[in-house]
Amino acid sequence: MQIIISNNADKPIYEQITSQIKAMIMSGELQGGDTIPSVRALAKSLHVSVITVRKAYEELQRDGFIDTAVGRGSFVAERNREFYMEEQQRLAEEHLRQAAEIGRVHHIPLETLQDILKIFYTEEE
């Protein structure tokens, strides 16, 4: 499991860890039941605080992406992939709803908003 941390990113380190692990689960790179590194092991390999990794794992567990068993470690939750996709779609809908509201209030044409979305959707990071 490879996680890349950027100290120059807008996101806090724990969010970078969380989003990358979620992406690995969503892509199928990590499957239900797969073991993920212990908090200490991941903290050591990333050269970050154990507290930072613990916070990321707590968020992943709260969101249903991982399960943690005392003495056994942390594992990718056996949840259905469609559940994850639905959750991500809900999040995208929330942001798009906000963008639509801004567009309506400020009289930005729908076509302009669609063009902007296409640009963001197809650009590579």
Task: Tell me about this structure.
With 125 residues, this protein is mainly alpha-helical. The mean pLDDT is 91. Helix 1 crosses helix 3 and helix 2 crosses helix 3. The longest helix is centred in the C-terminal third of the chain and has 25 residues. The chain is elongated. It has a three-stranded antiparallel sheet with strand order 1-3-2. The chain contains five helices and three strands; from the N terminus they run H-E-H-H-E-E-H-H.
Oligomerization state: single chain
Low-confidence stretches: none
First-to-last CA distance? 20 Å
- SS summary, helix count: 5
Our Rg estimate from Cα atoms comes to 18 Å
Short description, anyone?
The protein has 125 residues and is mainly alpha-helical. It has helices spanning 13-27, 39-46, 50-62, 81-105, 110-122, and strands spanning 35-36, 66-69, 73-76.
Notable features of this structure?
125 residues, mainly alpha, three-stranded antiparallel β-sheet, 5 helices, 59% helix
List the helices and strands and how they pair.
Blueprint: H1 13-27, E1 35-36, H2 39-46, H3 50-62, E2 66-69, E3 73-76, H4 81-105, H5 110-122
Antiparallel strand pairs: 1-3, 2-3
Helix pairs in contact: 1-3, 2-3
